[in-house]
Amino acid sequence: MYLSLRFRAFAAGAALLAASAIAQAQQALPNVMILATGGTIAGAGASAVNSATYAAAKVGVEKLIAGLPELSKVANVRGEQVFQVASESMTNANLLALAKRVSQLAKQPDVDGIVITHGTDTVEETAYFLTLTVRTDKPIVMVASMRPGTALSADGALNLFDAVSVAGSKDARSKGVLLTMNDSIESGRDVSKNVNIKPSAFSSQWGSLGMVVEGRNYWFRAPVKRHTVNSEFDIDKIDALPPVEIAYGYEGVSATAIDALARSGIKALIHGGPGNGSVADRIVPRLQAARAEGILVIRASRVPDGFVIRNAEQPDDKYDWVVAHDLRPQKARILAMVALTKTSDTKEMQRIFWEY
Ligand code: DGL
Q1: Quick one: 50 and 187 in the same domain?
Q2: Are 220 and 261 in the same domain?
């Protein structure tokens, strides 16, 4: 009887010690906020073989977290559903609301890192916008998936685990906004979606920043363009984004789109031309007319890689145009909107396109 009492007292003490050790270990883990916006990572298909046919933006953040108990091994996570949209339907209002929420959370001492789940279609644009405007050196990690969680070989669970692991890592600080997909850690500025149906869809012409494997980060390069705490832009001081649109160049292009956009009240027009940002001879005068109306003309290229050389295909100095450097048209639009919150001077705009 006496022994069993002692044994039970010992067992109770041991259980208490174990519980407090677990609690201490949990407290030692970083605090990571998961902001959910929709996309395929929150998608659901009718059957496991539906890896490409499914409904995006269906599963809530709490269910995403509950479905991945392994997250508790790398961080204390809390979830917040900012909105639930397929990312092709994101608006400037969504972008502003998300960035302001990220900025607010990044200021909290009990938040060590932030993960944003997002659709793959436009995650590259949101990532660039955040890296330009959120003044924090804490890790902000975007994450998406090419297949819904209901599909065979779904990629969302590991992508999300990796994102939370990176967001809780001290060595992920001061690297700008990141994207974790398919084991890679990509720069939010440089990354684009280059394949529309493979888990290895995302890459940058300048290479990944590193990889994350089993909760450990392996870094191989660091961003050189200005971002986050070194940016001159601050989401806390931006309440609206000026209208900027894109028109593409291609064989047989007419001026219909450009003329209509120029009459629509836009502040800048991104011309996504073939080659090194080439402009058809019949289109040059229409862009000059837009410039004369005070619209900034920014020459980008529809070619995925490389960068537009100033005064090469067109006399940009003479026409008072800007070149988009290595930014694809959709990213050039993001930077032009942000830059226009501060300046419409062409020389200043070109400096900004060199530096960001
Ligand atoms: N509708 C697309 C989006 O929300 C689905 C693509 C995806 O998230 O992978 O971006």
Answers
A1: yes
A2: no
Q: How far apart are CA 217 and CA 221, in angstroms?
A: 12
pLDDT in tens, 64-81: 999 999 999 999 999 999
- Which conformational region is residue 282 in: left (phi greater than 0), alpha (psi within -120 to 50 degrees), or beta? alpha
Alpha carbon nearest to ligand 1 atom 8, residue = 119
Q: What is the pLDDT of residue 67?
A: 92
**Ligand 1 pocket: which residues have CB below 6 Å?**
38-40, 56, 86-88, 119-121, 144, 146
CB contact at 8 A, 137 and 113: no
Domain harbouring 39, CATH code: 3.40.50.1170
Centroid of ligand 1 to alpha carbon of 294 (angstroms): 36
From 230, 260, 288, the end of a domain falls on 230
Cα–Cα separations (whole angstroms), residue 352 to 116, 237, 356: 26, 18, 6
Is 128 in the same domain as 260? no
List active site positions. Answer: 40
Which atom from ligand 1 is nearest to the alpha carbon of 145? 9
pLDDT digits (tens, 9 = 90+) for 17-45: 877 777 777 778 999 999 999 988 887 77
Q: Does residue 101 register a pLDDT over 90? A: yes
Residue of 51, 121, 123, 145 to mutate, ligand 1, most atoms within 8 A of C-beta: 121
Q: Are residues 77 and 223 in the same domain?
A: yes
Distance 93 CA to ligand 1 centre (A): 19
Tokens coding 76 = 């204390």
